Amino acid sequence: MKNRYLIAGVVALCLGAGAVVAEDAPQILRQDDMKGIGRAMGQLGAIAKGENAYDPVVVEGALSTISANAKDFPTHFPPGSETGLDTEASPKIWENMDDFTAHSEKLASAADALLADLPADQAAVGAAVKSLGSNCGTCHQLYRVKN
Q1: Is residue 77 within 8 Å of 94, Cβ to Cβ?
Q2: Could you tell me the residue ranges of all domains in the chain?
Q3: Is 144 helix (H, G, I), strand (E, B) or coil?
Q4: Given this model, what pLDDT does residue 49 score?
Q5: 64: how many CB neighbours lie within 10 A of its CB?
Q6: Which of 62, 31, 64, 41 is nearest to 136 (CA)?
Q7: Is 54 helix (H, G, I), strand (E, B) or coil?
Q8: In terms of Cα–Cα distance, which of 24, 47, 53 is closest to 114?
Q9: Is 140 annotated as a binding residue?
Q10: Which Gene Ontology CC terms are recorded (predicted)?
Q11: At residue 39, does pLDDT exceed 90?
Q12: How many CB atoms lie within 10 A of CB 128?
């Protein structure tokens, strides 16, 4: 009976350690960055469409998230992380790392410019979404593989 508890404890410990390792995997970290950008774009999109009222705090928070995550994103593509954990990263990233990083920096710069001159109403948020979205779309066409 004690052996069962000991075995169950060891199995639980190993499963927990595996989850911690997976959370720190570069594939997971970059997916988290993209999910954050997606949520932020969703917040901006809801304002642009009139689904949510204009709120400068929400706009600033969303743009700050996009800026921070776009700056962090290229750091999560070390050699050896090309596959696994449901990554949608194209092998082209590692072949063209400078260009890939430039795309990410362009998105961060666009978000920073919008933060410096915060969109002041629904129409301005709509224009910001179009601008940011075109940056996202260009990079996704080049460097994302849908699973």
Answers
A1: yes
A2: 26-143
A3: strand
A4: 97
A5: 14
A6: 41
A7: coil
A8: 47
A9: yes
A10: periplasmic space
A11: yes
A12: 25
| CATH code at 26-143 | 1.20.120.10
Give 146's pLDDT tier (boundaries 50, 70, 90).
confident
CA dist 102 → 11, 41, 108, 115 (Å): 44, 20, 10, 20
Q: How many whole angstroms from its chain centre is CA 35?
A: 4
List the structure tokens of 147: 């699973």
Joined tokens for residue 6: 């000991």
pTM greater than 0.90 = no
Residue 140 corresponds to which tokens in the numbers above?
């996704």
Is 136 annotated to bind ligand?
A: yes
pLDDT for residue 6: 42
Token pair recorded at residue 79: 């050699």
Flag whether 14 is marked binding: no
Cα(104)–Cα(139) distance, rounded to whole angstroms?
Answer: 8
14 has pLDDT over 50: no
Q: How far apart are CA 43 and CA 14, in angstroms?
A: 38
For residue 81, the SS3 value is coil
Tens digit of pLDDT for each residue in 113-143? 999 999 999 999 999 999 999 999 999 999 9
